[in-house]
Amino acid sequence: GPLIPPMLILQRGCTGSSVVIRMTKDLLADLGVAVFPLSTKEIVRTGQPYKNPWWSPDGDLGDAMRKGVKEASDAGQVLVFNAFKLKSWTKDKEELALNKALLDMDTRTVIVHRRNPLDILTCEIRDCFASVHGVPRGYPVDEKGKRDDTCFDRRQTGAKVKAFVNLNHLEENLDDSSAYPEAMQSSLRDLGFKGRRIVYYEDLVSHEYSADNLDISAKAWRQLLISLGVSVDIDDIKDKLKKAVG
After folding, report:
1. Dihedral-angle region of residue 214 (phi above 0 means left; psi in -120 to 50 means alpha; beta otherwise)
2. Is 153 a residue whose pLDDT tops 90?
3. Residue 170: phi, psi to the nearest 5?
4. How many angstroms separate the CA atoms of 199 and 204, rounded?
5. Which of 84, 114, 134, 171 is 20 to 30 A distant from 75 in Cα terms?
């Protein structure tokens, strides 16, 4: 049968990507869109292609995604996945193959980000991303201010990890985080992808804090879905979101 265009949510770490992809899949299913059940989260990491269930050593990530989308489409389902970035400027063979495959399959895209760059920075420091492009950011500490190496595991263990922020490079690091959505948008434009809207995490989840925010969230979800190629009535979205209203 015909290929069902896959849906890609571009989102960097520490911006609620696990929450957003889960909510997107739930909302699509609520709206009657059949979503392919995918247990693994990171299926397009070029440094770790083996995380993609369709990848084999004699092919590339582009081949793997073609297989995955075909399998989903044959079942009448859409493949929804997320990625950190797609680079229009890449020279990497694996990334070029991936970009081409996703374009050939008419992949729909949306970019999700957080408005508060300090939230992103402190979260990334607590996850042990100590520097970016060689610029030091700080390091994780426990409640007594001692260096802590729980990193990602803090999410499972519930360890109280704080961030010691390097103030000498604070502005540079906040700028790096703030630049992400526009940088990704222009990369997607250069590559020729459809969608490409920027939606903010805070808006997507604001209804969970107060019923007064239902309009804000419904509008944001409508933008996200339109960007992914799904046009839907805003009242239908409000109906679905109501069950999570704070």
Report:
1. alpha
2. no
3. -60, -50
4. 8
5. 84
